[in-house]
Specification:
158 residues, mainly alpha, Four Helix Bundle (Hemerythrin (Met), subunit A)
Length: 158
């Protein structure tokens, strides 16, 4: 593929990642209805949840500014016109997936549901294999050595 040529296909991620995390939260809530498991040591998780969601929102805004400045689409079912390596992408290749994990942790804390918290790593593993691997393969094809160099310098997660 010519790296200057636009790719009309994108990475092939058809199920939007927020949906995966949302379903995981709903599954955790359903499990909690079957057998309630509060998070040990948490009486009221609203303060901790408030802090966690604030961090998530700030990271999300920081990442989205990069997409806006690069004039590329944030959705993983659409082709990329630019490789973003600034903002939170200097520290993680997947800050928006970290944000979605933090949203699930926030829901667990806010609702005080251990099931929701226990399913957060499951959501992240699903995203890793369903979306991240596809996106990385696509970005390698789309941006070639530039992406490979970025991939060597920046961790996948944290």
């Amino acid at each position: 593929m010519n790296h200057n040529e636009p790719d009309i296909h994108g990475p092939g991620v058809r199920i939007h990642p927020p949906l995966i995390f949302g379903l995981s939260i709903l599954c955790g809530m359903g499990l909690d209805r079957l057998h309630s498991l509060p998070i040990p040591g948490i009486e009221d998780g609203r303060l901790a949840g408030g802090i966690t969601i604030t961090i998530a929102i700030l990271i999300a805004l920081w990442a989205l500014i990069g997409f806006y400045r690069a004039d590329t689409d944030v959705r993983p079912d659409r082709p990329d016109s630019a490789l973003i390596t600034s903002g939170p992408y200097r520290y993680s290749r997947n800050p928006l997936y970290i944000v979605l994990t933090l949203v699930q942790v926030t829901a667990a804390l806010w609702l005080n549901m251990l099931w929701v918290l226990l399913l957060a790593p499951v959501s992240t593993v699903i995203i890793n294999y369903y979306a991240v691997v596809r996106e990385e393969r696509y970005l390698e094809q789309r941006f070639g050595p530039v992406y490979l160099d970025y991939k060597r310098r920046v961790r996948r997660w944290l």
